[in-house]
Amino acid sequence: MLKHFFMLCSGVDADIIKGCSNGEQNKYAGIGATVFFTAVMAFIASSYALFTVFDNAFIAVGFGLVWGLLIFNLDRFIVSTIKKRERFFDEFIQATPRIILAVIIAIVISKPLEIKIFEKEINTVLLKEKNEMLLTNKKQVANYFQSDLDKNKAQIDSLKSDILKKEKEVNDLYSVYITEAEGTTGTKKLGKGPVYKEKREKHDAALQDLATLKTTNQAKITDLEAKAKTLQADLDKKVTETQPIIEGFDGLMARINALNKLPFLPSFFIMLLFLAIETSPIIAKLLSPKSEYDFKQEDNEMGIKNMLVQNRYQSELQKKTDAEIYDKVYADIKEDKELYNYKKKSAVELLKLQADGFVEKQKKSI
Asked: Per UniProt, which keywords does this protein have (predicted)?
């Protein structure tokens, strides 16, 4: 049962292979087994690849099954359409497009399995890339908000600087009126005279302005600090929102790119393995000599070709014979006087009717 199934997988003619030797049947069963297991590997590879895309096992298995059946059908077609020729070069020319197709299929099948085999190494590469992307993203988001943050900070610093300048001015005025009272500067008269009072009033006015300035600027500083906190919160929120996108950076394309950053040889040898598996049925048919199945298949095809040639010859001969017979028949009819007189009578009647009809049209037009 299994042997029969594998022979069907090889695409052989069931009626022909039944009459072949056991060894010939085993040969094609082996080719069919290769075709079948290649399709199984294609199913596994595509299911894994699609799972990394959809994150849904049912969708991945469904599409993987379709892909596996497609690969199975292609491989079966490739193997079954290669026929033995009289010269190896003719066989090779015939097989070249099929070999190219087999190479493409092997590469497509091997890539997802390579990704699974080197999954740990790929995860390491992806982790490094994610960390770099996180740092870059934070810098980009920070740069986006930086101008507003810098402007806000500059305004706060300016307001604080105005308060400090006013405080220095008040302190200077305080020193002036105190030293005036002590008699060490200004009029250098000890006591609280008119000049002292004037300087004291100037200090008190500046002190009042300082109090007003502090109240006004502090309210502005409080608003600006609240705005700075809002900007910082928006910055943190933006970073938080973009982090899941970066964390999800492990799709099929990302893994393929990460695989390409790993050493080339291990991945290359795995691809060669699948290439050998995929092309082995074709190579086997090319290298093997003409066998019992090939001779029987050629004999059947030759019989069909001969029958077609005979049918075509008979059809041409029948057409030629019919033409000669009809030529002779119409030649005999041409000499028949009775038929001539009958056709002449009919023609005369038709001409009379045409003439009468023409006269009637001319009368109506007058």
From this structure: Membrane, Transmembrane, Transmembrane helix
Q: What is the pLDDT of residues 159-191, one digit of tens each?
A: 888 888 878 877 777 777 677 666 666 666 666
Query: 10 Å Cβ neighbour count for 181?
Result: 18
Q: Where are the domains of the chain?
A: 2-118+263-289, 141-252, 308-365
Is the separation of the CB atoms in 209 and 126 below 8 Å? no
DSSP state for residue 291 in the 8-state scheme: -
The C-alpha atoms of residue 227 and residue 211 are separated, in whole angstroms, by: 24
Query: Cβ distance 202 to 173 under 8 Å?
Result: yes
In 3-state terms the chain splits into helix, strand, coil percentages (rounded to 5) of 90, 0, 10
d(CA 120, CA 2): 38
CB atoms within 10 A of CB 82: 18
pTM: 0.52
Query: Which two tokens mark 273?
Result: 């393995």
* Cβ–Cβ under 8 Å, residues 10 and 79: yes
pLDDT tens readout for residues 217-230: 788 888 877 887 88
The residue assigned the tokens 């507003």 is: 148
The alpha carbon of 199 is separated from its chain's Cα centroid by a whole number of angstroms, namely 83
**Mutual angle of helices 22-54 and 88-117, in 10-degree steps:** 40
Instruction: For residue 81, give the DSSP letter.
Output: T
